[in-house]
Amino acid sequence: MHITQLNRECLLHLFSFLDKNSRKNLAKTCHKLLEVFQDPLLWSLLNFHSPVELKKDNFLLGPALKYLSICWYSERVKVCNIEDWMKNSFQKDICNRHENTVSDFLLDVCNRCPNLLSLTLSGCGHVTDDCILQVLKNCPNLKSLKLENCVRITDHTLEAVTLHGGSLRTLHVDFCRNITQAGLERVRQKCPSVMLRAERSANMIPDSKPEKKTTLEKASRKLVQL
């Protein structure tokens, strides 16, 4: 029996065992398999391991998407999670190449995937509070939000959770060093039903840019020394 002789349910089940690239390659072989590839039922879960994958034409976004994960475990993660003011020109150049990639993708998710239930972001150093705010507003059924090693996430995200995370049941903000203990306490008070986890976050010291000493301060210090 040829693969195209299988019914649609069997083909969908078969496709479900393949990764995104394999699905795309198989879909190129005939129109029937292309139709299976384009079936929204096949795309309820998406896992990405690099921002580069977000630009590939090997998946579909739509209302069927329930579970989304973008986890970047690369040496470049260390560069993207350095505070902007600490980066040298070479590091800035690396980051500029994909600075808006994840943010633009999440905006697309907001517009096309209203039934999202779970979002996991790890190592996404360019994701901002505004990105998460838009997700919470546009995906009202979101039950699980897990953020790890996202340097630009601050207490504004925690505030957005208290305002727009009515369906949220799980919130992780691990290694998000720019949130504070006060922000976490507000979530605990306003959203007691949310399972909150913040490993190595509020106890970490944010890499805030040191303020420059004014001329007057420098002069005062010299006078004290004299």
Explain this structure to me?
The chain has two domains: 1-42, Up-down Bundle (Monooxygenase); 44-209, Leucine-rich repeat, LRR (right-handed beta-alpha superhelix) (Alpha-Beta Horseshoe), CATH 3.80.10. The chain has ten helices and six strands. It has helices at residues 8-15, 20-27, 31-37, 75-80, 89-96, 101-112, 129-138, 155-164, 181-190, 215-225; strands at residues 45-48, 67-71, 118-122, 144-148, 170-174, 195-197. Strands 1-2-3-4-5-6 form a six-stranded parallel beta sheet, covered by helices on one side. Strand 5 (170-174), helix 9 and strand 6 (195-197) form a beta-alpha-beta unit. The N and C termini lie far apart (95 Å).
Largest sheet: 6 strands, parallel
CATH topology of the largest domain: Leucine-rich repeat, LRR (right-handed beta-alpha superhelix)
Order of helices and strands: HHHEEHHHEHEHEHEH
Rounded to the nearest angstrom, the radius of gyration is 22 Å
| Approximate helicity band | 25-40%
Terminal Cα span: 95 Å
Q: Low-confidence parts lasting 5 or more residues at pLDDT below 50?
A: 210-224
Residue share in β-strands: 5-15%
Q: Would you count the extended β strands for me?
A: 6
Tell me the structural class. alpha/beta
Sheet with the most strands: spatial strand order: 1-2-3-4-5-6
| CATH class type of the largest domain | Alpha Beta
Mean pLDDT: 85
Q: Write down the domain tally.
A: 2
Shape: globular
CATH architecture of the largest domain: Alpha-Beta Horseshoe
Helix tally equals 10
